[in-house]
Amino acid sequence: MSDTRRRVKVYTLNEDRQWDDRGTGHVSSTFVERLKGISLLVRAESDGSLLLESKISPNTAYQKQQDTLIVWSEADNYDLALSFQEKAGCDEIWEKICQVQGKDPALDITQDPIDESEEDHFEEIPETTHLVELPPCELARLEEIADLVTSVLSSPIRREKLALALMSEGYIKKLLGLFRVCEDLDNREGLHHLYEIVRGVLFLNKAALFEVMFSDDCIMDVVGCLEYDPALVQPKRHREFLTKTAKFKEVIPITDSELRQKIHQTYRVQYIQDIILPTPSVFEENFLSTLTSFIFFNKVEIVSMLQEDEKFLTEVFAQLTDEATEESKRRELVNFVKEFCAFSQTLQPQNRDAFYKTLANLGILPALEIVMGMDDLQVRAAAIDIFSYLVEFSPSMVREFVMQEPQQTEDDVLLINVVIKQMICDSDPELGGAVQLMGLLRTLIDPENMLASTNKTEKTEFLSFFYKYCMHVLTAPLLANTAHDKNSKDHPEGSAKINPVCPDNFQTAQLLALILELLTFCVEHHTYHIKTYIMNKDLLRRVLVLMNSKHTFLALCALRFMRRIIGLKDEYYNRYIIKGNLFEPVINALLDNGTRYNLLNSAIIELFEFIKVEDIKSLIAHIVDNFYKALESIEYVQTFKGLKGRYEQEKDRQSQKLNRYRRDARSMDEDEELWFNDDDDDEDGEAVERRMDDDFSDSYEKFMEAKKGAANGANGANNGKSAAIPPASPAVTSSNSSSSSVKTVALPATPVVKTALVGLVDYPDDEDEEEEDEEEEEQSPRKRPRLSS
């Protein structure tokens, strides 16, 4: 129980006078040794960290508002607030603050703010004097009361004392009773005084007075008093607007009377601040800060109460998507959800996150998909506004939903395609809705806001989904208005009859410009997917048809698309452009533009200047080879001469490179000659070997003749046999020594074995062929036939 009672939200007031939520926790009041005093401590309910540590200073003015708020200032321009979940907890902490400061807990403020002008004589005012004396609440004293209220506004102390006096005597209700009397009597002078009184009471900036003035039985009389501005000849009719024109519609009956009263009150107070009260001057800008806080906390409370009522919101979305719901009822439901989302903008990020998750769980996105496709323009416009709130808050939530659609639905109706079709079919001549939707689409397909996602594959998965299911819907108007190719695979027969020049319809031209802007964004941010799509659909050729449009802004959009592609310096794109001869429509547009010095002229020249400066060689060669004759007459810029110069430089460089290659080839021939010389040495070794073999044969023949002569002179076979053995030994020795000497001579000629493997033979006409090789670039083909011989 104590946890709930002490549960609070900590707020700080920022420079824009808006309350920032610092977190939710539990408050306690304890003595802190370091601060040497009783202090307010708030520890976060999530992790126990310290959200607030504030010593209760005896001189700080604490203010209790709306039974559950305690507000104070700790330093110049640093205001703090504790918003309690329960009134009991607020009263408990308020009593502790009053106890430390020695004040009565019945008061709504513990100190009188002191400004420098009154600091000196503050001690002269008795501490027990809490009230200023108010004149009796009578018609005759209205002027006196008005003067009193106006006079205290410059003094913070007197403002506080006047507020206490007004509260203690029930003075506000008495004044409003006089208003009714004056109005019945048509007492204009009294009504003018009452205007000054009520306006001054609002400027007292006291929440306790607002609680009385903005209650159900008082607020319309307060508005009535503010109608009679003395500066106006005739009074305004604010009450008539609030009661008759502005109708409160309960799209679904609100059973909670407190919630209904809070909605009424917030609307009327907002009307008073925005419409009735004049814009405060520099000196009055802080007079209504409490009024701003009053509205802010009311809105937070309304959103929280609606969000917690699941039956109410479930019924809202059920009726919104029910086909049987009447159009007028559906319009009211959509407007309610839109207003609900607008209120949520006052929430802090963590609360807003919970709010949108609640809407997502209730089926806000499927409901929008149905509502956006309806014929009612007001319903569609409100649905687009709701969709923009969702996309701006969490693009990932929307992407997650649309990627699951193909698996969950049988039909081809996808939320993003519905959005694209709404953009294409916008009936507004200025395409206001289409521009808004184009911005939302760009947010959804922007990889930059996918990087922080917890799902690391979100970028790849979503882009694959988008190009598979949605890109053809986005480009359909573009392809339809540029179809002129009979063999186009994107259109049926008969599309060739469409004029290749973009229609003169300004609205169509604007739509195509929006589509091109999105496609250009894709070229910059989706490298792989858009490249594949452009190549497959020959998209750049179709886009460049729009260079013929009479709407210069559309021709510039087409040119910008090509410029982004070339800016990537991707050779795949460059080859695609060269193969398709896609510079032709650009150059025709430049030539057709003539001597007019306009944006189109400058943009086209900048395109060619970029190619020249970045030295994109393939494109330079293509442009000069195919279009230089048409461009050489343009001399007011040096771009095209520069392109020609780059082209000539590259040509010279290539020529020098080719010559260097040829010289290298000849030097290789010289190396080969040296190799052949080595082969000649090997052949000399072979000649020595043959000569030694011949000598051995001669010696052997002489030896055999001597042997035969000896045999003829012998008397027995045995002697001949024994005589034959000794010569055999020298013969073997001779053979061994001979082979040894041959091996020694032939050792350096080991490569002979290699040359024998490839059949290298010295032909008589080799020298002539070698001379011819000096003159020709390639010599190896002539030698190859010899490799197999």
UniProtKB/TrEMBL annotation:
Name a biological process GO annotation: DNA damage response
Instruction: Provide any one GO MF term from the record.
Output: protein phosphatase activator activity
Bias kind Low complexity: ranges? 711-746
Biased composition range(s): Acidic residues: 763-778
Coiled coil as UniProt keyword: yes
Tell me any Pfam family this protein matches: EVH1_PP4R3
Q: Which InterPro entries does the record match to this protein?
A: ARM-like, ARM-type_fold, EVH1_PP4R3, P4R3-like_central_dom, PH-like_dom_sf, PP4R3-like
Which stretches of sequence are listed as region Disordered? 711-789
Q: Which UniProt keywords apply?
A: Coiled coil
As recorded in UniProt, coiled-coil segments are 644-671
**Domain Serine/threonine-protein phosphatase 4 regulatory subunit 3-like central as annotated: residue spans:** 144-649
Q: Where is the PP4R3 EVH1-like domain?
A: 5-101
Q: Which GO terms describe its cellular component?
A: nucleoplasm; protein phosphatase 4 complex
- So what does this one do? Regulatory subunit of serine/threonine-protein phosphatase 4.
What's this protein's family per the entry? Belongs to the SMEK family.
From the Swiss-Prot or TrEMBL record, give the protein name. Answer: Serine/threonine-protein phosphatase 4 regulatory subunit 3
